[in-house]
Amino acid sequence: MPVYKAPVNDTLFVLNDVLGLERYGNLQGFADATPDMIEAIIGEAAKVAEEALFPINLSGDREGCTRNDDGTVLVPNGFKQAYDQYVQGGWIGLAVPEEFGGQGLPYTLHAAVGEYMSSANMSLMMYPGLTQGAIAAILVHGTDEQKATYLPNMVGGSWSGTMNLTEPHCGTDLGLLRTKAVPQDDGSYKISGQKIFISAGEHSMTDNIVHLVLARIEGAPEGTKGISLFIVPKFMVGDDGSLGARNGVSCGALEEKMGIHGNSTCVMNYDDATGYLIGAENKGLSAMFVMMNEARLGVGLQGLSIAETAYQNAVAYANERIQGRSLSGAKAPDRKADPIIVHPDIRRSLMTIKAFNEAGRAFVLWTALKSDIAHRSQDEAERQNADDLLGLATPILKGVLTDKGFDHAVMAQQVFGGHGYIEEWGMSQYVRDARIAMIYEGANGIQALDLVGRKLALNGGRAVMAMFKEIGDFCEENRGDEAMVLYTKGLKKGLNDLQASTMWFMQNAMAKPDNAGAGSTDYMHLFGLVTLGYMWAKMAKAAQTALAAGDPREEYLKTKLVTAKFYMERIMPETALRKVRIEAGADTMMELAAEAF
User: Fold this and answer.
1) Sign of the C-alpha dihedral, residues 513, 517, 523, 528?
2) Greatest alpha-carbon span in the chain
3) How far is 441 from 394, CA to CA, in rounded Å?
4) How far is CA 142 from CA 138, 207, 371, in A?
5) Whole-angstrom Cα distance, residue 19 to residue 92?
6) Cα distance between residue 468 and residue 499, in whole Å
7) Cβ atoms of 389 and 466 closer than 8 Å
8) 182 - beta bridge partners?
């Protein structure tokens, strides 16, 4: 049976030693996030993940969701009870402003907690996860009345939320959507159309579901310029907040999926459903992007979360399974064979995943802190810099962490050999669940195009130059530290490859855009390699500082340094490969006629 234990020590190391969360006490909500409180919250989150969510992960995958003839949907056994426990702990509103029933704590803390919950049960956590994205959109673009009507119940967990974008004929190209909105005399709209792939679209765990739906108002321009966003509740809400009649929205079918079986992924039918405009007419994408960007960070976190759970199970198996003898002599002479963890190739797999997970965790929390600074700082320049880096990091975090999360789930499965292919060991579920994260909230090829085609040039390249400067300054500041040479040398080499590739795009992609498209995925991963390397360099610096101060975590900190060295020796050199691919350009890739494939 699978195992999972929340990596509390690693999270606290990043929050306290690497990011120094205490330094941000001037930001709203941070003063309350003392080290003791953070440790208590992280510890309680670990308990909920391990004891309430994880035990029903495997059974939820096997049972899945069921649609009844009347369109209602049943979730797997135990999901409702676990959801209620999650809600009662106040986890949905951890970082939501107190005026709407939240706790107003840092989003960084919310991200830390979110990793544990997704690792424990990704399918179940998608229900409140979508709600949190909807809350974010309403907070930014909703009217005071809409906030008062919907947010308290959503934050409290008695109502949930969804996002409705994709239609049978359009996904990424939302300008093709056909769902229509007809204005009514009372200021509402009648929404008609069909949406597909709607996560948590119908279920009975909450009293109401608040759908955020993209549609085109009659007479609006074609393309993305004519898209508006609407709040469409499952049940109508009275002036006094009570629930009324069922709205014209229903689940027409459940999607038969490769993974995330415990989540109700629905085909949603809107038949003259009553909806309410959120934000301005024809500005729906900007409103929805608040939710989408929150979701993209959450999906990147899912990539890390599944890789962490898969890794823990692979480590446990590698320590128990005996097979063959160590190449350097028997390590368990009292047994008929050695545990497979003695074999270099098994260690290659485990160290690769470990190095990715620990740097990925730091990257997620670093990015979440940028979000906090962007939204809570009183310093305009500080807010701008943080917002720039947040926007730049989002496609990298989503694309790289989910690509590698899937790769490493497969790598962990391989450690099990034949047992990895057998359902009872649980590794199949991690591989199947991880696969969707590369696809939804913008397939990873789209994330790469967003990075290269939009984020690099945004504001004259201000964000990318700020990132290059931050990493370059770190290398320069630590250049004279002998103990840091190994880490800064590898990081600087990776940064040089990244800067050279960026310059190549500037020189070769303006006149020939296919060059940007052909190299975009390699560039995204090149940027990811350098960013994760930067996280490792920062962690190495923090570990050395702590060791020099006589920190009692000596073995833990030395393990950090060994893992950092592994990353620089075995993973960071991949930047050179990515650079060569980018500079190969698009000519060969685009040469064949379509019929030649």
Assistant:
1) positive
2) 84
3) 11
4) 4, 21, 20
5) 24
6) 8
7) yes
8) 190
Please, which residues bridge with residue 269 across strands?
194, 250
Q: What are phi and psi of 253, to 5 degrees?
A: -170, 160
Residue 155 structure tokens = 């934050």
CA 415 to CA 318: how far, in whole Å?
Answer: 7
Looking from the CA of 519 toward its CB, the CA atoms found within 13 Å total: 29
Which residues are catalytically annotated? 441
297-335: pLDDT as tens digits: 999 999 999 999 999 999 999 999 999 999 999 999 999
Sorted by sequence, the CB contacts under 8 Å of residue 117 that are 6+ apart come out as: 45, 48, 49, 53, 86, 91, 125
User: Would you list the DSSP string of 528-589?
Assistant: HHHHHHHHHHHHHHHHHHHHHTT-S-HHHHHHHHHHHHHIIIIITTHHHHHHHHHHT-SHHH
β-sheet bridge partners, residue 198 = 266
Q: For the segment 551-581, what is each residue's pLDDT rounded down to a tens digit?
A: 999 999 999 999 999 999 999 999 999 999 9
Structure tokens at 575: 């930047």
- Alpha-carbon gap, residue 409 to 416, rounded angstroms: 11
pLDDT above 90 for 174: no
Cα separations in angstroms, 495 against 465, 483, 488, 515, 526:
12, 20, 10, 21, 9
| CB of 363 closer than 8 Å to CB of 530 | no
Q: Give phi and psi for 342, each to the nearest 5.
A: -75, -15
Q: Residue 290 is inside which H or E element, if any?
A: helix 284-320
For residue 322, the 8-state DSSP code is B
Structure tokens at 347: 């260690």
Q: How far apart are CA 252 and CA 266, in angstroms?
A: 7
Which tokens is 270 given? 């809107």
For β-strands 73-74 and 159-164, DSSP reports them as: unpaired
Q: Please, which residues bridge with residue 322 across strands?
A: 339
